[in-house]
Amino acid sequence: MELSERKNEIIGLGEKLLAKLLDKGVDSVAILIDSHISRQVRFAVNQIVATKTWDETNIGVMIDKDKKVVVFEIGLASLSDIDEISNQLMMYIKNVSPREDYAPLPEPSMKYPELKDNWDENILKNPEMHVNLAFDVIDSGKKAGAKRMAGTLLSKAMFLCLITSNGSKLTQESTQVYLDVRAFMDKESTGHASIAGTKLSQIDASKVAEEAASTAKLSQKYQTIDPGRYDTFFTYDATAALLNLVGGATSAFAVETGQSFFIKKLHTNVAPEIVNLKDDPLFSGAYNSRAFDDEGSPTRANELIVSGELKTYLHNRFTAKKFGSELTGNAGWISPRAWNLVLEPGDQSINEMIENIRNGLVIHNVTYIRFQNYMAGDFSGIIRDGVFLVKNGEIAAAVRGLRLSDNTLRMLSNIIAIGKERRQIFHWWLEQDIPVLTAPIIVKDVNYTKAVK
Amino acid sequence: MKFSLDEDFARYAVELALSKGVDYAEARIQNDTERVYILKNGKPDAMGISKELGISIRVLVKGSMGFAATDDWQNKEKIRMIVEDAVRMAKANRLGDEKLSEESSFNVSLFVKPKIDPWNVSMEEKIKFLTEIDKFLIEADPTAKVPNRMHYLLEKSTEKVFYNSEGTVIISSIPRIAYFSFFVVVVNGKFDTRFIQKGESRGWEALKDWNLSTYLAGEAKALSKLLREAVEPPEGELDVIIGPSVSGLAAHESVGHPYEADRIWGREGAQAGESFVNPDMLKTKIGSDVVTVIDDPTIPNSYGFYLYDDEGVKAKPRFLIKEGYINEFLHNRETAVRFGTKSNAAARASAYNREPIVRMANTYVAPGDYTFDELLEDIRFGVYVKTFGEWNIDDRRFNMRFVGKEAWLIENGRLTKLVRNPILEITTPAYYASIDAIDKNLEFEAATCGKGDPGQGVPVWTGGPNIRLRNIRVLKG
User: Fold this and answer.
1) Could you give the residue range(s) of every CATH 3.30.2290.10 domain in chain B?
2) Considering the domain A4-203 in this protein, what is its CATH number?
3) Sign of CA pseudo-dihedral B250, B255, B260, B265
4) How far is A348 from chain B (nearest CA, A)?
5) Per-window interface: A 294-353 vs B, CB < 8 A
6) Which of A409, B102, B187, B342 has its CA at 20 to 30 Å from residue B149's CA atom?
7) What is the pLDDT, as a whole number, of residue A250?
8) Above 0.90 for ipTM, yes or no?
9) Interface membership of A87 toward B (CB under 8 Å)
10) pLDDT digits (tens, 9 = 90+) for B300-309
11) Any idea of the CA torsion for A322, A327, A328, A334, to the nearest 10 degrees?
12) What CATH class is the domain B7-229?
C-alpha cells in the first residue's frame, strides 16, 4: 500500500473531475481529495481488543453557480455517480436564491507556507510497530502498578490535494499519531494521559502509561468534600478539553448561528493579560498541519486572544464577507474552524503552580461537556481520571462525585496561572476535534456541584 | 432507489480470508447515501450530498480480531490488500483471547420501502417546506425575536450486504429521514437556546406526521414565555414529574449505556467508559416495581430500526429492567461469550468503515396506567421538568445531571408558574428507586448516539412517558 504511488493518479483524477464539472456550465469548482491509510490499535483490560486499518480516498466537491453553492462528498468507488449527483445539485441551485453572503473562491496565493516535521514513513512501513507500542503501554502501566490498562493508538498517513477552477493545484503529505491511555485500579480509581504528534517516535508510550497509572494509584485514597468554588489546576488534557470550547466559539459560523459565547466580544477582554492563544497549523510537528485551507487560501498563525483580548473570529469566504473581515485561512466549506490551537506558555513549573494553591483541586480530565446556553456559555462537564484536593500546596487526597458546573467566559477571565511546559493533545473526546498544544492552567473559583443521593 | 450492491465482492473477501487460515471472517458492504438541506437564518445554505460506500472485513485469528476497510469495494486487488492487512495486524497481536458466540445462520433479504421516496420529492418542495416552518418559528410569538435559526433536513438510505464464513447472508435496505434545528429566542435582551431532533425509518410521509410547524411554534412560544415569566425554582427535596423527552433520555443514558456488555467487561474503558453495573448485578433490584425499560430494534418506522444486526444475528426486544429488576444486558457475539450467553443482536456499525460494537436501538421506559392529571394531583409542592437543556452523566453512568428547560412549579396538584433552569443531580439507582408512578403517554424522540473510536453515531429513539419521582433534590440554576 504505497501512498506515494497514488499522488499523480489522484491529481489527474481531480483535474478530470474539474473539467467534467466545468462543462456543465458552473461558475467555479473546488475539489478536495483526501487519500489516506490509517491504523488503529485498541486495547482494554490489558489486551489488544482490535487492530484496524483503513485505506480510503474521499473526494469532496464544491460547486458555485449564480452565487449559489452546493457540496458533495463521495468515495473513490462512487465516481460513476458524479453525473447523477451533480445533476441533482444543479437542480437544487435552480430552486434557491443567491446567497447574500456570497463571495467567490479566493484567488490562489503566490506563496504557501512550508510544513515542517510532519511526515513519518514508519506509519506506513511498520504496522507492527503500532501493536508493539500498545504492548509497551500495557506492560509499562502494569509495572507502574495499574490493574488494567486501556487506550487507543491511532495513526494516519494522508495525501491531500485541492484543485480549483481558478487555478489552485495544492498538495500536501502529512502524518498524524496520537496515544490516549486510561489506567484503572478499580472502576473509580482511574488515571488518564495522552500525547499527539506527527511521528511514532514522538509517542513515549512508557511515560504516558506511567503517568496514567500513577494518577490511578493516587486516586484510590479519597475523601468527601462539599461542592462549591475551588481554585483549580487543570492538567494538559483537561486544559485541552476546555480550550476546545474556546476554539469552537471562535468560528464565525458559530457566532453567526448563535452557538458561540464570543458573540459581540470581538476586541474586548475575555481573559486576563497572561492569556495568549493562537490557531497555528504551521508549527513544527503540528498534529493537524495544513498549508492551505479548503478554499485554497494559505494558512497562517492567527492570534485569537492577545494579552486577554479577543482579536479575531476564524473565517471562510462567506463568513468573511458577512463580517467584513479578511480571510484567515481557516475555511471549511460550510463552517470555518481552528486547525491547531497553541496556548502561549507561562513561567511556572507544575510543582510551583500546585504549591501556590491553598485550598483547591487538581483535575486531569474533563469530558461530556454540555451547554445549557451556548451564547451565555453556561455548561457542565464530567471530571475524572484524577481529581485531587490540594491543601496548602500539597495534594491531600482524591475526591469523587463532583461535577464542573460553570461558565466559559467566567472561567476564561479567572485564569491566574499558566505552566511553562507544554504538550500536544489530541484524542477522540475533545469536543471540537481541535488538537491543542497546551500548558496546564490554574483557574480561580471554579464552581462544582454534586449529587446528594 | 434501486439496490446497488453486489454480494460477490463480500463473498470474495470472506473466501480469501479463509484461504489465509483465519478462524472466522465476515465482510460488510455498506452504502450510506444522504442528502442534507440547510436553511440558515431563513436562507438556503449550501446543500450537501454524501455517499459513504465501501467494504470492510473482520477476521478472527487465534483469538485476535483484525478489521480493515476500503472504499474501493469493487476492486479485488484492493480487497486482497485489506484482507491481508487485517490478517497481518491480527497476527501481530499474539495475545488475543476473543471468541464469538455460536448463533444461527440466516440467508435473508430485507427491504424497507418508504411510502414517498424523498429522492422523488422535488427540491423546490423541500426548500419550501423548510422555509415555511422557519416562518412559523419566527412568527410564533410577536413579542419575541428568533434571530438565529438553523434547520437541517436529512434524507438517508442505508444499503448493506453482510456475508460471513458461517453461511449467513443478510441483504438490507433501510431509508431514514430526519430533521434537526437549533434556534435562539430573545425577549427584552434575555436569550435562550433550543435544539430539536426528529427522525424515523420512513420516507417523506413522516414529515407530515411530525407537524413541525406547530411543534416549532410551540417550542418558540414556550421559550419566550419562559424568558418573560419564569421565576427561580424552589430548592430542596421535592416531588418531581419528568416529561417524556427527559425520561427517554435518562433511560438511554442511565440504563441503555451501562447495560452494554462491552462497557461492563471493560472494552470501552478508554473511550466511552465502563459501567457501574457488574455482571453479578443481573436479576438484582435497581428500581421500583413500576419501572420496566426496554430496548427494541424491531419497532416499525423507528429511527433505530433493524431486524438483523451487523453480525447477522436476528433482532428482538431486550428487557433491560423488568419490574425494577436488572433483567438483561446488551450483547454482541464477542461479549456474549465473555458472559456465557447468546448475543441479543446489539452489534451495530455506523458505516462500512466501522467495526460492529454493542449499541442500543430504541430504548424506552414502558408506559404505566396513570393519566398525567393523576400524577399531578398527588403532589402538593413540586416541579414538573417537561424538557431539558443541559445534560450529562459520568462514564460509569452512575451520576447524572440535567437542567430543565421548560419547567413548572406544581402547587396543590396544579401547574402554576414557570421556573427557570431547575437542576437535578442524582445517582442512577436513586433515580429509578424514586419512581412511584408512570403515566400512559409514551413518546419517542430521535437522537444520534455516539460511541466508539473512531466515533460511531447511530440513529436511535429514546422514549418514555411522564414519570413521577418522590423526594428528589432540586437545585437552582
Assistant:
1) 7-229
2) 3.30.2290.10
3) positive
4) 30
5) 333-334
6) A409
7) 98
8) yes
9) no
10) 999 999 999 9
11) 60
12) alpha beta
